[in-house]
Design a protein that fits this description.
Layout lengths: L2 E2 L6 E2 L6 H8 L12 H11 L12 E6 L2 E4 L6 E4 L13 H14 L8 E5 L5 E6 L12 E3 H4 L4 H4 L9 H11 L3 H18 L10 E4 L5 E3 L30 H6 L4 H11 L3 H12 L2 H10 L4 H19 L4
Antiparallel strand pairs: 1-2, 3-4, 3-5, 5-7, 6-7, 8-9, 9-10
Length: about 325
């Protein structure tokens, strides 16, 4: 009986990691596919680390480092972030948050051409799955790589912009900030646009400013970091807003919202125009993304989501495809 790679979802003789996954996760070092801790124990560890860690967000997250083939909770020098099933109650599919994030991250890279942080699922001591991702702002020996998220770049904080500071902006302004801080803007803006289109299609309604970052390269300049924190939030929060941020700045409503009640493909093309993208390039990104339906269905069928969650995930995608096709040339 075949099983699946806990990272890439390719078939394996037994559950674990493929060679390619191990290369991304641990530079081909030994990497465990099981963790000798339960979710309850992880929550306790997270509580003890909270005051010391800078990892943002309300989801339960634990910092880990790899030592002699074992993953060990750590208060400093963390190389990985582990996310078990969240403690916060969600309206539906709460136990499937790790599988959702894993599937969405894999779909982004495997199918939609988006570079992502190395990621996988891992079994806890009680058999439950948790999501794990390798930190791209750390080197193998624990050194730091300069990274700033767009809340930092745009000088938005709880003190300056209130509790909803992460959402106090628009995707147009996000692009304007990218232009200011990124010398390779022409290349990076297309990457950002592709990620926004993907997020809309899979129902990621929580793509706020802190979920986008710039990362320093070996040559000293800054480019978009690998994508992270991608998931179909609509799977768990079916009544949430379709987008975390407005498309356009100020009080301007997209034509699609005014006419149809939701953002359309025409609205995304207008956003691309304001980014300075060539119209044919933007249309190509949208068309390529819309063309991944069959491949996504195949990947979802191999995912660790339950049959009910798989159907709901694809239902969100199909609904968003219909919305994105509206107003396209």
């Amino acid at each position: 009986m075949t099983s699946r790679c806990l990272s890439t979802l390719v078939e394996l003789p037994r559950e674990g990691f493929s060679a390619g996954a191990l290369n991304k996760l641990a530079d081909r070092r030994k990497f465990p596919h099981r963790l000798n801790l339960t979710r309850a124990e992880l929550v306790q560890i997270r509580a003890s680390q909270t005051a010391r860690l800078s990892i943002s967000g309300v989801q339960d997250k634990v910092s880990l480092r790899l030592h002699r083939g074992e993953l060990i909770p750590t208060e400093s020098g963390g190389q990985y972030i582990l996310k078990p099933v969240p403690s916060l109650a969600l309206p539906q599919f709460q136990a499937e948050v790790p599988a959702n994030e894993h599937l969405t991250m894999q779909a982004a890279e495997q199918l939609f051409g988006i570079r992502t942080a190395a990621n996988a699922l891992i079994r806890l001591a009680d058999g439950e799955l948790a999501y794990i991702t390798r930190r791209f702002d750390r080197t193998r020996d624990g050194g730091r790589v300069a990274q700033e998220d767009f809340c930092q770049l745009m000088e938005r904080s709880r003190r300056s912009h209130g509790e909803e500071f992460k959402y106090d902006s628009s995707y147009q302004e996000l692009g304007e900030a990218l232009r200011r801080f990124c010398p390779a803007y022409t290349i990076e803006i297309e990457k950002l646009f592709r990620q926004l289109v993907f997020g809309y299609l899979v129902g990621n309604g929580d793509a706020h400013l802190k979920n986008f970052s710039l990362l320093q390269t070996d040559s000293g300049d800054f480019i978009l970091s690998p994508a992270y924190d991608l998931l179909s939030s609509g799977l768990h929060l079916p009544t949430e807003s379709r987008l975390a941020l407005d498309l356009f700045k100020g009080d301007e409503y997209p034509d699609g919202v005014l006419t149809h009640g939701f953002p359309t493909g025409g609205d995304f093309l207008e956003l691309a125009r304001r980014y300075g993208m060539r119209a044919e390039r933007a249309l190509r990104v949208v068309a390529e993304s819309l063309g991944q339906g069959e491949a996504l269905e195949a990947l979802v069928s191999r995912s660790f989501l339950s049959p009910e969650a798989r159907a709901a995930y694809l239902g969100v995608f199909r609904d968003r495809c219909k919305a994105l096709r509206v107003s396209l040339p």
